[in-house]
Design goal:
By secondary structure, the protein is an alpha/beta fold. The protein has one domain: Response regulator (Rossmann fold). The protein has helices spanning about 15-25, 40-45, 60-75, 95-100, 110-120, and strands spanning about 5-10, 30-35, 50-55, 85, 105. Helix 4 (about 95-100) links the parallel strand 4 and strand 5 (about 105). Helix 1 packs across helix 5. The chain is globular, with a radius of gyration of 13 Å.
Length: about 120
């Protein structure tokens, strides 16, 4: 049996970490950082299969973190990342699109929907 793929989760909220881990823990090895500013270094170190960003994370929110990953990827400093944003409300879908997120889910987390979202390839738009 091969090693599990890494899912990098950026959230300050313990309950979000528990919910994501419960939804996909058998499929991915969930690594957590608590600040958006720590995501880029974690991407370089762990080469995750997917990055999940809570919209509300300290010192550099999910939207800014997603944009940072996109800019760094385009500059060739990190590999292109699959990014999923966890949104606070349906109106935040606009922000997810502006941040160039691949996918998103509005909280509260629906474990089955999140598992489906994370275990299927995103559809190119």
């Amino acid at each position: 049996m091969g090693a599990q793929s890494v899912l990098l989760l950026a959230t300050e909220a313990d309950h979000i970490h528990r919910e994501v881990d419960a939804a996909v823990g058998g499929t991915y090895r969930v690594l957590r950082v608590r600040a958006g500013a720590d995501v880029r270094a974690a991407v370089i170190e762990h080469d995750p299969a997917v990055v999940v960003l809570d919209l509300q994370i300290g010192n550099m929110g999910g939207m800014a973190t997603c944009l940072d990953l996109r800019l760094e990827g385009r500059a060739g400093r990190i590999p292109t990342q699959r990014v999923v944003l966890l949104l606070d409300r349906e109106a935040d879908v606009f922000l997810a699109k502006q941040a160039e997120a691949d996918q998103w889910q509005v909280k509260p987390i629906d474990p089955l929907a999140l598992r489906r979202l994370l275990t299927t390839e995103p559809v190119a738009s």
